[in-house]
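Model: You mentioned two targets. I'll fold them one after the other.
Researcher: Yes, keep them separate.
Model: Target one:
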Amino acid sequence: MADLIAEFLQAVDGAGERVIPESALAGGVAEDQQAQFDAFLAQLEAAGLIADVSPADVGRRFVHVAVTDAGRRYVADQGA
């Protein structure tokens, strides 16, 4: 789990408070990659590291990642 979190943070390090396209995190939007990305998000969510912060009526899922020990926050746009 720590490796997955480190990999995620490396992918978005230095982003600060900005929206990251899902493709930038998953490396593309191919079906198999989307499935891997979804599974990865589920692991982070289970660990309490991310939360869905988008209004349901927007129709898009925005994942807010707060890394409290480092004081960093990231917002990832998973897309529609």
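Model: Target two:
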Amino acid sequence: LTLAGVEVDRKVLADLAVHEPEAFGAIVDQAKAALA
């Protein structure tokens, strides 16, 4: 996540995963793209 420039802590990520799965998915996709 740091490589992708995503600066949110684990607590926020967990909250997004539960309450806003689409937003969480977008962060995951961004992180995957940074690693590719």
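Researcher: Noted. Anything on target two?
Model: Residues 21-35 form the longest helix (15 residues).
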